[in-house]
């Protein structure tokens, strides 16, 4: 019985060592995967920030261009601009006051 008990202990110890090794490897794999995910997240955030800046700059350029074109059109046709603004105001007033 003593030999059998010794064999069982050795088998249990080997199983425990294998379990510890497997757990250590799993922990290292999880840590590696987490680092890769973090790096991927940082890269994605950087690309998103770059795309946001690019879109913001494009919108600002288009807004400035449109404002200049509108200003030029109003300066070239002041009376027509006043008439259009008056007509839109009347139309909005009618739409707001109707029941």
Low-confidence stretches: none
Helix content: over 70%
Could you report the average pLDDT, rounded to the nearest whole number?
A: 92
Radius of gyration: 37 Å
What's the helix-strand series?
HH
Sheet of most strands: none
Number of helical segments? 2
Class derived from helix and strand content: mainly alpha
Shape: rod-shaped
Provide a descriptive summary of the structure in words.
The protein is mainly α and 99 residues long. Helix content is 96%, strand content 0%. α1 (2-76) crosses α2 (78-97). It is rod-shaped and about 110 Å long. The model has no long low-confidence stretch (mean pLDDT 92).
State the main characteristics.
99 residues, mainly alpha
Task: Give a quick precis of the structure.
With 99 residues, this protein is mainly alpha-helical. Helices cover 96% and strands 0% of the residues.
List the helices and strands and how they pair.
Layout: H1 2-76, H2 78-97
């Amino acid at each position: 019985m003593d030999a059998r008990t010794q064999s069982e202990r050795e088998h249990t110890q080997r199983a425990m060592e294998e379990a510890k090794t497997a757990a250590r490897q799993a922990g290292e794999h999880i840590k590696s995967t987490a680092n890769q995910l973090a790096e991927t997240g940082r890269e994605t955030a950087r690309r998103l920030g770059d795309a946001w800046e690019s879109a913001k700059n494009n919108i600002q350029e288009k807004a400035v261009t449109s404002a200049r074109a509108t200003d030029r059109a109003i300066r070239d046709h002041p009376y027509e601009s006043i008439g259009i603004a008056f007509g839109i105001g009347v139309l909005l007033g009618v739409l707001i006051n109707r029941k």
